[in-house]
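If your schedule permits, I should be very grateful for your opinion on a structural question. Kindly check, if you would, that the fold set down in the tokens agrees with what the sequence suggests. Thank you for your consideration; the sequence and its tokens are set out here:
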Amino acid sequence: MAITQFRYSRIPAEAEALRGEVRQFIDDNLSDYPPVLRAQSWMGFDAQFSRRLGARGWVGMALPRQYGGSDAGPFARYVVIEELLAAGAPVSAHWIADRQSGPLINRFGSEAQKDRYLPAICRGESYFCIGMSEPNSGSDLASIKTSAVRNETGWVLNGQKVWTTNAQHSHFMIALVRTGERNPKARHEGMSQFIIDLSLPGVTVRPIRDLTGGEHFNEVFLDNVQLDADALVGEEGRGWDQVTAELAFERSGPERFLSCMALLKTLIGELGRAPDALQSREIGRLTARLLTLRNMSLAVTAQLAAGEQPTWAASCVKDLGNLFEQEIPEVAQLLLECSPSQQGGTQHEQVLAYLTQMAPSFSLRGGTREILRGIIARGMGLR
């Protein structure tokens, strides 16, 4: 199973050729960007930076040219986002629209939806969030209660979503909701996806403050929200199948193991050119794991490029990647006698403080560890 799921995949030469251009763009635009902001990685919000990326054709680049994309393959996009994340570029504004919402609309949406939403996504001007988790549901999406009921003008939406990243900044949310009766024997049936304009009456977004004082997650309340008939994405009742395809993109990319790159860089800088034996061993061990995770992620990218649905393999990348990311702050404190510092201190101490507080959330976003390991167990035939 592991051999077929994780075959070594090399980035094609035409995609690799983009790397130097992206690095130059980063140097030109982020030369004075401080490490503590780079530590925010794909959670860093900067609308102007997203528009500049869009102008270069690096947002929605895998989407068709007729909608503003570049018809680029998955590996070309991989090179671009790998360089951006490794540098800690602030890509959060367009991130979900580029990674999930745009491809979902392109695959399952109507022609009118593609014409309406995709060009603005490709310009880096339209921001999306994903409405999946709910109170008392977490990553068990089959237990969601938010519902959409047909009426004479479309659909009436009621319910609540939680842990919705960037909802307070987003223009739209693609939500998974119930449109049919719950069937205990077929828990994944009767769900559909809708595009929700977050400016509509009845939508309330309430940020959730995290340990760092930031507001990345949100609660979204939906109280008799009237949606037009064309807000439905794809087929009614096929929401679970659509979400399953979407999650493979969410769980397999380099964002699942590069969240602590800023800390790894400041740590190596503090250790200098003459680390002791323990420091050398631990940096070597982290580097080996990083390269292994990258190869696993590229293997999933190859499967996506071939039109496959590597749900099991993508879950492996996320689970192992989260373990790696969460270990880096612990290793950093083992190797250097310094304390995390939110006020003052060195750049390394500030980055260490931020990522020590953020690390627990890495295994929550995009599906909890328990859910992922259930998917992995099924993929291995263990349940």
Notes: The chain has a mean pLDDT of 90. The domain at 2-126 is CATH 1.10.540.10 (Butyryl-Coa Dehydrogenase, subunit A; domain 1).
